[in-house]
Specification:
By secondary structure, the chain is of the alpha/beta class. It folds into two domains: 194 residues, Rossmann fold (3-Layer(aba) Sandwich); 80 residues, Adenine-specific Methyltransferase, domain 2. The protein contains nine helices and seven strands; from the N terminus they run H-E-H-E-H-H-H-H-H-E-E-H-E-H-E-E. Helix 3 packs across helix 7, helix 4 packs across helix 5 and helix 4 packs across helix 6. It starts with 25 loop residues before the first helix and ends with a strand. The structure holds S-adenosylmethionine. S-adenosylmethionine binds next to loops. The site of S-adenosylmethionine has 23 residues, from loops.
């Protein structure tokens, strides 16, 4: 694998920590991938853990990736197209943060940069230095996470950012900011769609859905279930992650769906005791 990346050496990994990120579940997701598939679709992209895994293992794989969070989608495009300027800007953040972390963090959190490089650099800087590496916005779409307690956060992970830029440029990847329902009209027989939507709450206190200023509701889940059935009728291979929720299990009960309960630790939970001992559902039609 090292050879494939030439002098880049590192295999690309998610460049942001994202609530619901699938890095720790890659081995089990990998076991559940079909041997062959056409285009790979990932319409709830987030940090893109499975995307980077697939691109690393299958060079030249055609992919269609999307998310409703416009800052996040812009970050993928900026990393692909303006990597040198982005790294320069992040090095600036790193220097200023080292001088006075708290006042610098809150000044950047308040700022509203206009150009793509500064917007993406702000997103990555805040993600690296905020509490728990969480992305969360309020109802007005404003990032609202406080400063995290880090002694030496890795603000400019240059090797990984260059590797991500390289793989996005080298592969046939289309990147869009869209609602999940609008990006699958071209999906055809044999294509693979991986859905990793914001999870349905398993209890009334377990809700984290603030990736955008629009929550993912039960109606959205119903829309998603209908789309899964339509994709199945077209002959697409569908893989879906969700919480171990009775409502989800009920919606996907019966043919063609196979449901597996898999152990999953949560990387993002304000109480570290609540990060272990959880299960998730993995649902597929193949
Ligand atoms: C659980 S996260 C995906 C995590 C990802 N698999 C990873 O490894 O980091 C869910 C994502 O869905 C996005 N999202 C929420 N509502 C959406 C919608 N209606 N259409 C498309 N994306 C949406 C959020 O912005 C968030 O990035």
């Amino acid at each position: 694998m090292k050879q494939e990346y030439g002098q880049l050496l590192v295999a690309p990994k998610p460049f942001v920590k994202w609530a619901g990120g699938k890095r720790q579940l890659i081995p089990v997701l990998n076991q559940n991938l079909p041997d062959t598939f056409g285009t790979y679709y990932e319409p709830f992209l987030g940090g893109g853990a499975l995307l980077f895994h697939i691109l690393t293992e299958r060079s030249g794989q055609k992919c269609s990736i999307s998310d409703l969070n416009s800052d996040l989608v812009l970050a993928y495009i900026t990393i692909r197209d303006k990597i040198d300027d982005l790294i320069l800007s992040l090095k600036g953040h790193e220097k200023n943060y080292q001088r006075d972390s708290s006042s610098y963090y809150y000044s950047i959190r308040k700022s509203n940069p206009r150009n793509d490089v500064e917007k993406t650099s702000r997103l990555i800087f805040l993600n690296r230095t905020c509490f728990n590496g969480l992305y969360r916005v309020n109802s007005k779409g404003k990032f609202n996470v406080p400063l995290g307690k880090y002694t030496n956060p890795n603000i400019v992970n240059e090797e990984n950012l260059r590797s991500v830029s390289h793989i996005l440029k080298a592969s046939r990847v289309s990147v869009k900011c869209r609602d999940f329902e609008t990006v699958l009209s071209d999906a055809k027989k044999g294509d693979l769609v991986y859905f990793d939507p914001p999870y349905q709450p398993v209890s009334s206190t377990a809700n984290f859905t603030s990736y955008t200023n629009k929550d993912f509701t039960f109606d959205d889940l119903t829309r998603l279930a209908k789309l899964c059935t339509d994709l199945d009728s077209k002959g697409c291979k569908v893989l879906l992650s969700n919480s171990d929720s009775k409502k989800v299990a009920k919606i996907f009960a019966g043919k063609p769906w196979k449901i597996e309960r898999i152990p999953a630790n949560r990387a993002i939970n304000s109480n570290s005791k609540n990060r272990t001992g959880h299960f998730e559902l993995l649902i597929k039609n193949y």
